[in-house]
Write a structure and sequence with these properties.
45% of the residues lie in helices and 22% in strands. The protein contains 13 helices and twelve strands.
């Protein structure tokens, strides 16, 4: 079993291996000796893993109950959140108890925010079951829900007590959903690791998935340690996301998935940066080649409405009173946050 330790405001371990889902109760018992467990998941994940996780928790001496909500980004909202609060209160959960977030990014973000805010904060464990949640969203303590004004605009930083990544759970993903999650994996290679980028470009991804996930969470964990509250270095993790969030909002969070939007955002910004001399020549083509290998898009018809995307991107969290923070990769594995005024950002997009 691979193990990565994150030393943020609280220290916790990320455990990565094939076939460890049925050890959930045993692994949690190493850090949580008692308490009731609220397993929060969606209807898709529940069909595959809900009862297995409940059984494992029961065998380890915990008293678990399950809350299931409808899958999809539309459920990452206050309506779902309020239902979770009611479920916790009606079943008598206290600060001594804990939440288990079983699922992808929507489950992790929503259940994590419930854990951050119910009784002003209770413990939670992440069990990510998708590529994007194992590689990225389950690590670092960012929790949130969406509102009509934009994605992830209401949330809190709340670190998990433990992250359990069973890479076998990725086998039940459709090829399209697996590809979608690879956008965040490619992102980590672009911003921090030429070695990871090379592995992704030259090797079979599924055959090397445990090593790839370890490298990803190591990158994410180190960035979180250095900048837990996203005041500086952690902004690098937003590479591709400024345009991605605008694209998602443009389509009202339907039709274009998050990973596909991030892929397009990374490609577009890197091509622009290369043309403006901010990125080493040839990097954009290498990035595009890897994105296409992963089954991800590098363009979209909405790019013809760049002015509308510009206006939508100004609603993003990276828009500050002083302008925009844009992540640029000068080379593969090398990135920086570039501060632009709103006028400079508009000019950048016109390129």
């Amino acid at each position: 079993m691979e193990k990565v330790t994150v030393n943020a405001s609280t220290s916790y371990e990320i455990l990565i291996d094939k076939g460890i889902l049925d050890k959930t109760g045993e692994l949690i018992a190493n850090i949580k000796k008692s308490g009731k467990a609220a397993v929060i998941t969606d209807d898709n994940v529940d069909k595959y893993y809900g009862e297995r996780v409940l059984s494992s928790l029961e065998n380890a001496g915990f008293s678990p109950k399950k809350f299931v909500f409808r899958h999809g980004e539309a459920s990452k909202c206050h309506s779902t959140l309020l239902s979770i609060y009611d479920f916790l209160a009606e079943n008598g959960y206290t600060r001594s108890d804990f939440i288990v977030a079983l699922g992808g990014g929507v489950v992790g973000d929503t259940a994590g925010y419930a854990a951050a805010t119910y009784m002003r904060g209770i413990d939670f464990v992440q069990i990510p079951t998708t590529v994007v949640s194992q590689a990225d969203s389950s690590v670092g303590g960012k929790t949130a829900v969406d509102i009509s004004g934009g994605k992830n605009l209401v949330g809190a930083f709340h670190q998990p007590k433990l992250v359990i990544c069973d890479t076998d759970t990725l086998d039940t993903l459709t090829p399209e959903f697996f590809s979608d999650g690879m956008a965040e994996v490619v992102k980590h290679g672009m911003i921090r690791s030429a070695e990871l980028f090379e592995i992704l470009s030259t090797k079979d991804i599924k055959e090397n998935i445990v090593d790839i996930m370890k490298r990803n969470v190591s990158i994410k964990g180190k960035v979180v340690e250095n900048d837990e509250r996203e005041k500086g270095e952690r902004m690098l993790l937003n590479f591709g996301h400024t345009l991605a969030h605008a694209l998602e909002k443009y389509y009202n969070y339907t039709g274009l998935t998050h990973g596909c939007a991030v892929s397009i955002g990374m490609s577009v910004f890197t091509h622009i940066a290369e043309r403006r001399g901010m990125t080493k020549p040839g990097v954009a083509d290498k990035l595009d080649a890897l994105l296409l290998k992963c089954g991800l898009p590098i363009t979209d018809p909405a790019l013809d409405s760049m002015h509308e995307l510009y206006k939508l991107s100004l609603r993003d969290k990276k828009h500050l009173a002083s302008g925009m923070n844009i992540v640029i990769c000068s080379d593969i594995g090398k990135s920086e946050v570039v501060k632009m005024s709103v006028e400079e950002y508009a000019e950048f997009l016109k390129s």
